[in-house]
Each structure stands twice: as C-alpha cells, then as structure tokens.
Specification:
The protein is built from four helices and four strands; from the N terminus they run H-H-E-H-E-H-E-E. The protein is mainly α and 130 residues long. The strands form two sheets. It has a two-stranded parallel ribbon with strand order 1-2. A two-stranded antiparallel ribbon has the order 3-4. The two termini are 35 Å apart. 8% of the residues are buried.
Length: 130
C-alpha cells in the first residue's frame, strides 16, 4: 500500500495495489475498478523480479501498457544486498542484543535465494552490540 501511495503521488493518477496470486484485489479486478471510475488508460507497474507466469498474466490484464519485470537492475541487486546485510546485522529471534560478526566468511552451509524470505539460522560467531 505504501508503494501504491508513493507511486500515485509521483505520477498524479490513482494507483490501486493488486495481487497476481490469491490476495484481493486481483490485477483484473483492479483494472475493472479503475475502468468503472472512468480510467481506461490503465498501466500495470509490477514488482516481479523475473519473467514468468504471473508477470505474463499481469501484463495481459493491462489494457494500455505494462512494466517489464525488474530483472537484474542494479538497484534491485543493491536492495537485496542491503536486506541481506540487515538480516546479518541483528537477529531479534535470539532474544539478545547481539550482532553477527560481519568479518565471518560465509560458510559451506550458507545460501541466499533471491525472491524468498531470508531465514537467519543461529549464528556461529557473535560479538556484543555496540
């Protein structure tokens, strides 16, 4: 909803958040709602990271234009790294005011799957919070 509000402020037209999956409203329902309000040049600005079924279906629902998936845009890569750094920086699930040692090299068991929630397992090395 915040992204929709910011986008509406930026472009000066109504923006309706919609979902490509099970949540309501769907993209099709949002397009219909905008058409009922007299808006017929409706663009779909998606937040998909890669092409696929949902991105294709949303693009087909756009009566005017549809944005391409974000792909490998440098800003997306920076955001993923920023969120990864945040997850490494503080693990509230431990219940302690501790931060991970950023000098620790990734271990053989470490992995990051872009596009999926990051789960931080209990760290191997901790240092006191500053």
């Amino acid at each position: 909803r915040r992204t929709a509000r910011l986008l509406a402020e930026r472009v000066g037209v109504p923006v309706v958040p919609a979902s490509a999956s099970a949540a309501a409203p769907t993209v099709e329902a949002a397009v219909r709602a905008l058409a009922e309000r007299g808006r017929h040049r409706v663009a779909v600005a998606s937040c998909f990271t890669a092409p696929g079924r949902f991105a294709t279906e949303c693009a087909k629902a756009a009566p005017w234009i549809a944005a391409a998936p974000l792909g490998d845009h440098p800003a997306l890569a920076r955001l993923v790294l920023h969120r990864y750094d945040q997850a490494l920086g503080h693990d509230e699930a431990l219940g302690h005011d501790q931060v991970l040692d950023h000098h620790q090299a990734p271990g053989q068991d470490d992995a990051l799957l872009p596009g999926h929630p990051l789960t931080v397992r209990p760290p191997r090395t901790l240092t006191p919070a500053a």
